[in-house]
Amino acid sequence: MENIVFPQGFLWGAATAAFQVEGATELDGRTDSIWDEFCRQPGKVVGGDCGEPAADHYRRFEQDVAMMADLGLKAYRFSIAWPRVRPDGGDVNPAGLDFYKRLIDTLLEHDIVPWPTLYHWDLPQKLEEAGGWANRDTAFRFADYAAATVEALGDRVGTWTTLNEPWCSAFLGYASGVHAPGRTDPRAAVAAVHHLLLGHGLASTTIRAAAPEAKVGITLNMYPIIPVNPSDPSDLDVARRLDGLQQRIFLDPLLRGEYPADILADLEPFGFGEHVRDGDLGVISAPMDMLGVNYYTEHYVSSSPNGSEPGPSPWVGVQHASFPRRDAPRTDMDWEVHPDGLTTVLLRLHHDYPRLPLYITENGAAFRDDFSGNGAIDDVDRTGYIASHLRAAHTAIKAGVDLRGYFCWSLLDNFEWAEGYAKRFGIVHVDYATQIRTPKMSARWFSRVARDNALVTVS
Ligand code: PNW
């Protein structure tokens, strides 16, 4: 019998994002985001899927909150849609804000902590047409949107997250082009990195002005980067560059007030430094109260001249990176399962960027779920994935890491970006035709963990 107890007050929750669950893309004054436009372009999203119907959460949020309460969840991480609150990036739309007021009030009535993110990838399309995140002005627009949102909702929210995974916004959106807006311009991608960070900094300043008591942070996606041959200098160099682009290019300006010198040099041919003006790093490094960590897998990398994947790469300036497969279980995303990597990531943050409270804001897995004869979904794989990662998180806590919560991705099956509805991450199944919700075995199990504040396994 193994009994793993979490610290008192540990925050147990589940996460979603606006475009992935809400649907109702044309209701109450919402206008297009870059994802609505991207979904219309042939071949960009598997199955030609789009933001409709998603999980119809915009209309069914009351039922969904009641279900979270039944499951004993203590917190709900969701995102606020910029094109609802400021359609086309312009004037404030009270009807858009009103939806989030009702959502948050319903959560509070059920004693569930609202954990909103201001930007989970749904840039108003109009702002993309003005240059998107490659345009410095977008950072200021983001701060204006943050100000309007926090003025309206600040009395109801304790912790604000500015951005979700700016790595994806910048490098998948503007370099590899597999995410909206689908651009393949490395110079635009590195400009986007700086402007996303500047947007974070400007927004945190406006959040603190509007809600002095609020806690503010950001969520990053983190991976251990493991060189195939640690005694091969070219493998080590690829690993250093990938770690720089994935992790340090965000963490260092946020938490040390400077960009990593090696990455500044690597990105010089792409004009990175040209975007950084006097005073920007001071804005970006404004003190944060917490860091959100999204963890799914590790990157195992080597340098091999023939190995680079064809097509535009998200790894700007990195020639010849290849990602050999290891003998490990895989999810339906084809991502390898490496729970120990979560311990690695948490320990690294603890040592390299100390005294920062951490939350796991996403962790979970896509698997093909089948209904058994009795109408239940026994998602043993997903349950095992979450359990193994909770053990890895607990190992980090025992080693002294200040980890304060865990949100599984996701509460509901939803629109998995370029993969459409085919990939299911939910602990609750959604039948998209009927919108019937069915909690999977993982939801029942996670509910028990949240209630016990412990992972109890009999072996
Ligand atoms: C994260 N990659 O996305 C997002 O925050 C979620 O919205 C998403 O549903 C979840 O993880 C599962 O994918 C990522 O290709 C999407 O490296 C793609 C990548 C990383 C994160």
UniProtKB/TrEMBL annotation:
It is an enzyme of class 3 (hydrolase). Signal peptide: none annotated. Gene3D superfamilies: Glycosidases. The active site is at 362 (nucleophile). Its EC number is 3.2.1.21. It comes from the Bacteria. Keywords: Carbohydrate metabolism, Cellulose degradation, Glycosidase, Hydrolase, Polysaccharide degradation. GO terms for molecular function: beta-glucosidase activity. It catalyses: Hydrolysis of terminal, non-reducing beta-D-glucosyl residues with release of beta-D-glucose. SUPFAM superfamilies: (Trans)glycosidases. Belongs to the glycosyl hydrolase 1 family. This is Beta-glucosidase. It comes from Lentzea rhizosphaerae.
